[in-house]
Amino acid sequence: MTKQPVATKAGLKRQAKDGVEPLSSLRFLPHHDRPAALGEIHSRPFPVISSNRVIMHFAFTSEGGAQVSQAVLAELCRSRGETVPASGARYHEINWANGRLRWERHSEFTTFLWEGPLPKGFLDPVANTPFGGSFSQPGMLISATRVEIRPLTPANLKLLKNFDPESLCVTLLEDGVSLLATDFRQDGNGMTVFLLLEKSMPPSRIGYFAKTAIDVETYRTLALLGLPLAQSLSARLTGFEAELARLTSQMRAIDSDSVRPLLDTMTDLASELEADAAASLFRFGATRAYGDIVSERLGVLGTAAPSEYKNIGSFLELRLGPALRTCRSVEDRQANLSRKLSRAANLLRTRVEVDIEHQNRNLLESMDKRARLQLRLQQTVEGLSVAAVSYYIAGLFYYLMQAAEHHLPFGMTSKAATGFFVPVIVLAVWLLVRRIRRHHKAE
After folding, report:
1. Please, which pLDDT band fits residue 147 given cuts at 50, 70 and 90?
2. Which residues, at least 6 apart from 405, have a Cβ–Cβ distance to it below 8 Å?
3. How far apart are CA 202 and CA 213, in angstroms?
4. Which CATH number fits domain 226-362: 2.60.40, 1.20.58, 1.10.1760, 3.90.25?
5. d(Cα 340, Cα 346) in Å, to the nearest integer?
6. Hey, where are the domains in the chain?
7. Average pLDDT, the chain
8. pTM of the predicted protein model
9. For 162-172, how does the pLDDT look when each residue is reduced to its tens digit (9 = 90+)?
10. Which of 51, 340, 12 is nearest to 178 (CA)?
11. φ, ψ for residue 212 (rounded to 5)?
12. Which one of 106, 195, 234, 331 has the largest count of C-beta atoms within 10 Å of its C-beta?
């Protein structure tokens, strides 16, 4: 945890003696993340290493969680009687066999770095390292690096012959008075070897350049973890693109009955594409970030090199650059194909909606026709009902007139009286039916 700065009594007395009011930021309430922000640049200091030393560095994945790696570190600490780091620690350092062991926890991986006495011969076995048979591997191995630090002498320059001449690359450091060499190949123990030949270089600078070389190896390996995924997805994307081309060509010739099956097929294709994009989102994002870190570290090493050798930066750019661009290309293809699928699906949905609207319009027209037919039928039935009701009323009226035929005025017969009142009966029935119909409409 970052320590807050302390205002010393001597400093406060000196300010008071000079007539200046003592000033300290400690009296202000700090932001809750201020200690972490201030301490971040000091959280992983570069090691201070002298010449004639060897560095062994291992990076492991953290799929088991940070507690797994921290448990391994705690066991190493207890075996040496060292203090066990607090839970949640991201950096810890202990003494180990005439050297120092550094542990660092990152978001996706953890690292163990040990520096100790250099063996007599180049690439000779190193004794008393923390990584013997009792060391428990905390995760899958990502990178293994060995850095030998030796004085720059004619005899040590001959050690460059131990590297593969086809991939040997050398970068000059400190204005050409020191050099860093590697071939990025693994030795018999599976470790990538760097040789740092220094001349009067301070231990802080030796540690700085050695750690930079280790970072280049670690982060370039992490960056390349996205390449196998990109290659597998590239083949799938080619199939998706061909399928999309086939579906879009069908869109111009299909009838209305085939639109929905085509839309279902396109939706399934989009679902597969989005599943692949979601699964590769973190890996491709990490590849970009790690690639940027490699570029930054190579910038620290510089581009100076002896005329007979390639420098480390140009060597990696020729090999790492295409791999990183492949990952970016696959990511771009995913995004472009997703947009094209979305547009094609929207076009099909629009066509489906237009077909549905056309069907709805036809349905409404059919319903309107049926309503008009029902109205005509209702009017016909009403006319027939007026005639029928009038007929029955006229019949009843005729029976009434027959009963009172001897009392009719003007010598009228029952038939004449009935015939005279038939128009009145029909009009009365028609008015009654009309009133009933209007009453129903009002309701």
Report:
1. very high
2. 413, 414
3. 17
4. 1.20.58
5. 10
6. 1-43, 44-222, 226-362, 376-442
7. 87
8. 0.75
9. 999 999 999 99
10. 51
11. -65, -40
12. 195
